[in-house]
From TrEMBL:
Protein name according to UniProt: Autoinducer 2 import system permease protein LsrC
Record key words, sorted: Cell inner membrane, Cell membrane, Membrane, Transmembrane, Transmembrane helix, Transport
Listed PANTHER family: ABC TRANSPORTER PERMEASE PROTEIN YPHD-RELATED-RELATED, AUTOINDUCER 2 IMPORT SYSTEM PERMEASE PROTEIN LSRC
Organism: Pseudonocardia yuanmonensis
Lineage, broadest ranks: Bacteria, Bacillati, Actinomycetota, Actinomycetes, Pseudonocardiales
Domain of life: Bacteria
Segments crossing the lipid bilayer: 20-38, 50-68, 98-119, 126-147, 167-187, 216-238, 250-266, 273-294, 300-317
Quaternary data: The complex is composed of two ATP-binding proteins (LsrA), two transmembrane proteins (LsrC and LsrD) and a solute-binding protein (LsrB).
Length: 325
C-alpha cells in the first residue's frame, strides 16, 4: 500500500517552478543589480571571498532544511559548529593524528549531537525549540571544558585544502555543490526521500501507513548534525584559527536560508536546492551591504528584512493556493 501511495504521489516541485522560483529569480536579479550598482562586489577577489562563505552556509542550510521538513528546528547549530571547530583542532594538536582522523572525530560529534536532539524530541517529547537550545548550551559548556576556550590553529593540510581553488573556484564551493546535490537527490528522488517527505507532511497518516515516523525525525536530526559538523570542519580550514564564537552567526542564517528558500515550516514540503540558492542570495547580499560600507548590524537588519519579505510572499502564495483549491 505504501508503494502505491508513493507511486501516486505528485512529483516534487522543481527549483525553477512552483514555490521555489522566487528565490532563483531574486538571486539572479541580485547579481545583475550587484554588477550594475556595486561592481566591486563582482570582482574575482570579492567572489573568491564570497564562495567559501556560501559553501559553508549552504551545507548547514541543507541540514536545517531536513529538520524543518520534519516540523522541527535545530537551534544547536552554533554549539555544534563551535564544539567541532575548537575540539577538532585541539584534538589534532594534542594527538598529532592525521587530518582524516580529525574529520571522523568531527562527524562522530555531529552524529551524537543529532542523536541527542532527536531522542529528546521524540522519546521525552520536549519541543524542538527547547531541546535544541538546551543542547546548544550543553555543547558550548563541553567546548570550554575540553579546550579551555583557547583557540588552536588548524593543521597545515586542512588549511591548504580549504584554501585551494581548482579551475579558479574555491574547493569548498565544489564540495558544497556535491554535498547539496547528493542530499537533494536522496530527499527528492529515492523511496527513502519520498517517505521522509510523507512523514514530515503528515506524521499521523504516515504512522497509519506503517512508517516509523520517530525514526525519520531522529534521522533528520542526525543528518543535520553530520552536515553541521562537516561544514564546521571545512570552516576550520578556511578560517585557520577558530574562536569560541565561530558558530554564532549560523543560528540566524541557516533558518533564514531555509525560510527564504521556500521550505514550509509546517513540515513536508521543502527543497535543499532552494535553501542552497537562498544561502547564495544571503551571502551575496551581505557582500553588497559591506561594499556600501555598512557594518555587521546593518547587514543583519537587511537580512531580517529579506526574511520578512519572503515570509509575507509565502503567506500570500499559500492563501491564493488555498482559495483556488
Amino acid at each position: 500500500m505504501i508503494a502505491a501511495q508513493e507511486a501516486a504521489a505528485p512529483a516534487r516541485p522543481r527549483l525553477a517552478a512552483g514555490p521555489y522560483a522566487g528565490i532563483l529569480i531574486a538571486t539572479v536579479l541580485l547579481f545583475v543589480l550587484s554588477a550594475i550598482l556595486v561592481p566591486q562586489s563582482m570582482t574575482a577577489q570579492s567572489l573568491g571571498a564570497m564562495l567559501p562563505a556560501w559553501a559553508v552556509l549552504a551545507i548547514m542550510a541543507a541540514g536545517q532544511t531536513l529538520v524543518i521538513q520534519q516540523r522541527g528546528i535545530d537551534l544547536s547549530v552554533p554549539g555544534t559548529v563551535t564544539l567541532v571547530a575548537m575540539s577538532v583542532t585541539t584534538f589534532l594538536d594534542r594527538s598529532a593524528a592525521p587530518v582524516l582522523v580529525g574529520l571522523l572525530f568531527a562527524l562522530v560529534i555531529g552524529a551524537l549531537v543529532g542523536l541527542l536532539n532527536g531522542f529528546v524530541t521524540t522519546r521525552i517529547h520536549v519541543t524542538p525549540l527547547i531541546t535544541t537550545l538546551a543542547v546548544n548550551a550543553l555543547l558550548l559548556g563541553a567546548m570550554f571544558s575540553y579546550t579551555g576556550g583557547v583557540p588552536t590553529a588548524a593543521p597545515a593540510g586542512l588549511q591548504g585544502f580549504s584554501g585551494s581553488a581548482p579551475l579558479g573556484v574555491s574547493t569548498l564551493a565544489w564540495v558544497a555543490l556535491v554535498v547539496v546535490l547528493a542530499v537533494a537527490f536522496v530527499a527528492g528522488r529515492t523511496v527513502l526521500g519520498r517517505r521522509f517527505v510523507a512523514v514530515g507532511a503528515n506524521p499521523a497518516a504516515a504512522r497509519a501507513l506503517g512508517l516509523p515516523a520517530e525514526r525519520y525525525v531522529v534521522g533528520a536530526y542526525m543528518a543535520a548534525g553530520l552536515l553541521f559538523a562537516f561544514a564546521a570542519f571545512l570552516l576550520v580550514g578556511y578560517t585557520q584559527n577558530p574562536s569560541p564564537t565561530l558558530g554564532n552567526p549560523y543560528l540566524f542564517q541557516t533558518v533564514m536560508a531555509v525560510v527564504i528558500g521556500g521550505t514550509s515550516v509546517a513540515g513536508g514540503k521543502g527543497s535543499v536546492l532552494a535553501s542552497a540558492v537562498a544561502a547564495l542570495f544571503l551571502t551575496q547580499l551581505g557582500q553588497v551591504v559591506l561594499s556600501f560600507g555598512a557594518g555587521p548590524a546593518t547587514q543583519l537588519l537587511v537580512q531580517a528584512g529579506a526574511m520578512a519579505v519572503a515570509l509575507a510572499v509565502a503567506a500570500i502564495v499559500e492563501r491564493r493556493g488555498a482559495t483556488r483549491a
